[in-house]
Design a protein that fits this description.
Elements (H helix, E strand, L loop, with lengths): L9 H10 L6 H12 L3 E4 L7 H6 L4 E5 L2 H12 L3 H5 L1 E5 L11 E6 L10 H12 L2 E12 L13 E7 L7 E13 L4 E12 L2 E13 L3 H11 L1 E7 L13 E8 L2
Parallel strand pairs: 1-2, 1-4, 2-3, 4-5
Antiparallel strand pairs: 5-11, 6-7, 7-8, 8-9, 10-11
């Protein structure tokens, strides 16, 4: 399958930006889940390997699927730096999460860090879940997360730039890179919003380069997801409101699901 040019700019900044976000705790959740369920694992939306590589380092065979050429290219660069044993556990596939088929099943299929929020219509959301479910082995589970929508802040700050991350490349410590995001549009009917990421490079306090990338995301309500599960032939095994496996209730920040196909 072919790749697309999404994340063309963001891919080269992706790992460094998210490495600065100390509250990003999803990777240990998925790695621990992989250790509990055993391999091999199928990760849909593997990106640059932020979750995939730690899983492989734990001795678990893992297959990664993504449709972004730039993200897969970065993952291949990251993988080349790993020990041969880690590289030997990883198989990569270029594919659209709505339609790919690997003709094999896995005890654990994951969609970590919100790729489901890149599905913008009911039809695409259902196709993505159905495609994932087709790869779940007997007794296996599908795990994924989306954020718990905060409707009280959804319409706030449209058009405002906000600093989200700052770092210096190890190869050039005198350069400072800052990632800003700007919420451009909220569509309450379609349940989507659009962002622009702005990457600014500074040296000696002077702006030396600026690049932008856009992102569109959907958001879900709990009943919306439960209907999708029913249509896709899935039923919940567990539901969590955080990556610490706290209950999915009104204090939740995330909606995390473990699902099994209804046989």
């Amino acid at each position: 399958m072919s790749t697309i040019d999404s994340y063309h700019v963001a891919a080269k900044y992706y790992d460094a930006a998210y490495a600065t976000m100390r509250d990003l705790v999803d990777a240990p959740f998925y790695v621990e889940l992989a250790k509990e369920r055993g391999g091999p694992v199928l990760e849909i939306g593997c990106g640059t390997g932020r979750v995939l590589l730690p899983t492989a380092r734990e001795g678990i065979e893992i297959h990664g699927v993504d449709n972004s050429g730039p993200m897969l290219a970065t993952l291949k660069e990251n993988l080349a730096k790993e020990d041969p044993a880690v590289r030997g556990r990883v198989t990569l596939h270029a594919g659209d999460m709505r339609e790919f088929r690997l003709n094999r099943k896995f005890p654990l299929v994951t969609i970590p860090f919100r790729p489901m929020q890149h599905m913008f219509t009911i039809a695409d959301q259902l196709r993505a879940l159905t495609s994932a479910a087709a790869h779940v082995a007997e007794g296996g589970v599908l795990a994924f997360d989306v954020f718990y929508p905060r409707f009280e802040v959804l319409m706030l700050g449209i058009g405002e730039e906000r600093l989200e991350a700052e770092w210096s490349p190890p190869s050039d410590p005198e350069t400072v890179i800052r990632r800003y995001f700007r919420k451009d549009l909220v569509d309450k009917i379609a349940q989507t919003y659009s962002l622009t990421f702005i990457f600014r490079n500074y040296r000696n306090g002077q702006l030396t380069a600026e690049e932008t990338d856009t992102l569109k995301m959907s958001y879900y309500t709990y009943p919306h997801l439960r209907v999708l599960f029913m249509l896709a032939g899935l039923e919940p095994v567990a539901e969590y409101g955080s990556f610490a496996r706290t209950p999915l209730d009104n204090s939740a920040q995330e909606m995390i699901f473990l699902l099994r196909p209804v046989r």
